[in-house]
Amino acid sequence: MIFRRLTAAALSTALAFSPSFVAGDVAGNDLPDFGDSSGSLISPTQEVALGEAFMRSVRAQTKLITDPVINDYIVQLGQRLVASSDAPNYPFTFFVVNNPAVNAFAGPGGYIGIHTGLILTARSESELAGVMAHEIAHVTQRHLLRAYESANQMSLPTAAGMIAAILLGVATGSTQAGIAGVTAVQAGNIQRQLNFTRANEKEADRIGIQTLARSGIDPYGMPSFFERLHQSTRLYGNNVPEFLSTHPITTNRIAESMSRAEQYGRSKERDTLEFRLTRTRLEVMESDNPQETLREYRALTKKQSSGPADRYGLALASWRANAKDAAVKQLHELMKDDPDRVLYRVTMAQLLMDNGQTQEALKLYKDTLSLYPGDLTVGQYYVAALIEAGKAGKARDQVLKMLRHKQARTAPIYELWAKASSISGPAWETNVASAEVYYLYGNLRFAIDQLQQALDHKGLSEYEQARIRARLQEFRQLTAANEHK
Ligand SMILES: [Zn+2]
């Protein structure tokens, strides 16, 4: 974990965090029992509740990357590492924070945030995976338990909001408003507990490298990334990357991780194309100078060493610089060699939409969905395109089909549902969908308000009423739990 060192005063910052305490259906049964070595620390159920509240605070406090392609890549890589970790059944959640600082962090409940700056700085998938494996190890080795215990002395939303602020580096000394109910002593306590000890860092490196090797990813990724960050400190001056400010990288640490990597040896797998394509997409889509980016990719693709990721970058950069025909041509070329790649298909469909070729775009999405049934990335783009094309009814059917699966119940998909139903569904349905969006963004009051409005509408079946009432009851219980603590 990585965060700025804060003074107690720095923690006095206005935060839009949410009240929340998740009870009921989130039993901790699936969680591994980590034993009782640290005494009376928080229970798995409490940790789940803290984690969910933390994530809602994160959404309220910072900008996350919503591009399904980028998120999906990070989730897949994360799950691959988790499968080879010491806690393969622990419910990790990976998300991407839109922040150029080279950083990653582990929050309560296995929520792991990856900064865009880290993805863009990594030169290989193994470097990115090295940092992620390190963060996963902080979770599996229970390094955060004492911080949670300190947090447990205060109300859950307050604790979750503060942990999120510290990890995101949002808390600054410039704001004066305090977090309700947090004393300077409590704040300092959490801050201290969130700072890992040298022993923790060493252990996270050791376990992290083991995870890398077990998952078939090059274990040298970790020392190689450390070394590069270490060398780059001279260039950064006072602007040291976040990762370094809390994970001091000494020559000793590099040497130790290097000798550990040597024990496992190099893995055969080189960089995946997915990594290079994802990094390229992030780089081009987030560029604030599309013309300059286009010039760069033109130069790159002229080199002998250029590959599909550079050509994909050229297609995207052309598109962003408004040279749509060139973009389509480039993508056609890529698809000739690799016709079933989801990323190419989705990008082509987006381009076609942008070009006014709606029918072709929708057909491509539909074909891609029949090739990869249930793919949430394709599904989300398809629903958004249907709405844009004025086919909200079809969009609603599609999103309802997706929502039958638990993993689809995310804020962006609920937002699509709200949008589609506001055009083509019963009025109460928009309220229900909006309630879920508000809930996931940490605003229980608005969520409750939406459900009450939903119940005011005529024409709800008894079943629908009962479902809404049950959800309303859950939200009210969460509110009450917060107020009583
Ligand atoms: Zn660490």
What is the string of helix and strand elements?
HHEEEHHHHHHHHHHHHHHHHHHHHH
Number of DSSP helical runs: 23
Could you say which overall geometry the principal axes of the C-alpha atoms support?
flat
How many domains, in number, for the residues? Answer: 2
Describe this structure as you would to a colleague.
This protein is mainly α. The protein has two domains: 256 residues, no CATH class; 185 residues, Serine Threonine Protein Phosphatase 5, Tetratricopeptide repeat, CATH 1.25.40. It has 23 helices and three strands. It has a three-stranded mixed sheet, with helices on both faces. Helix 8 packs parallel to helix 11, helix 19 runs antiparallel to helix 20 and helix 22 runs antiparallel to helix 23. The longest helix has 23 residues. The radius of gyration is 23 Å and the shape is flat. 48% of the residues are buried. Bound molecules: zinc ion.
List its traits.
485 residues, mainly alpha, Serine Threonine Protein Phosphatase 5, Tetratricopeptide repeat, 2 domains, three-stranded mixed β-sheet, disordered N terminus, binds zinc ion
